[in-house]
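Data availability (excerpt). The following record was deposited with the supplementary files.
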Amino acid sequence: MVVRGKTLRAFAILCALGFSSLGLQMVWTEPRDLVVREVELRLPRWPRGYPPLRVAVASDLHIGSPHNGLGRLAELVRRINATRPDAVVLLGDFSPDVLGGRKIAPERWARILTGLRAREGVYAVLGNHDWYFDGPRIRAALETYGKVEVLEDASTAARRGRFPVWLAGISDFVEAEHDVAKALADVPTKVPVVAITHNPDVFPTIPPRVALTLAGHTHGGQIRLPVLGALHTASRYGQRYTKGHVTEGGRHLFVTSGVGLSALPLRLGTPPEIVILRLRAAGA
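Predicted structure:
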């Protein structure tokens, strides 16, 4: 009986240590982490003979959420620049809505984004939380103070010359029109086009001519458990578009787990990330 009592106490101590360690990881360690990972995507709609395009992708900055103040934003700018991307895309939700967060004037944080460096430019779309805060104000701050080109149901040539590449920005699936046809209306027919949007739920409506769709919004689930996966994805499709590279019917989607925090100031199993995508032809 004595041995059994000691065993139970030891087990209880180990459980307490495990839970406290897990809690520390969710509350402090993982939210403060910032992973930079590189992913190569070979795309059927990327023409043979085209040089690769390196695109830095960051989403859901939620500036003002715990661990994501102006200093963290400056770090993100430095780390993106260190990868020397051809282009940078920011996929919305600059504004926070999280327990323990604070609102920061968009004019303040947008000035930090002027530090981003990319030969082919810096582009953005707005997310649902940006519209909850003040969509027009955030767009104006990005364009005026951040020198970021905002593409809301609009497109632009991200790379010109012999190997043109177009970006088509599709506005938020929940809070805006998300007019895919309008976003693609000015894109020439024989050039590769990358669609950027906030919410991946728009992906089923993306036509096959789009080489790749980029999205955020899900935070990779933000709390992701072994076997069970993400507890919540904020997507009508459940875990179908939670994170990473998805292919459906020959079309390609990449969903980043983002940088900041929403609703609860916790992360587990899906650390904040900057993704550097290297886009190239499938048969290259």
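Summary of structural features: The mean pLDDT is 92.
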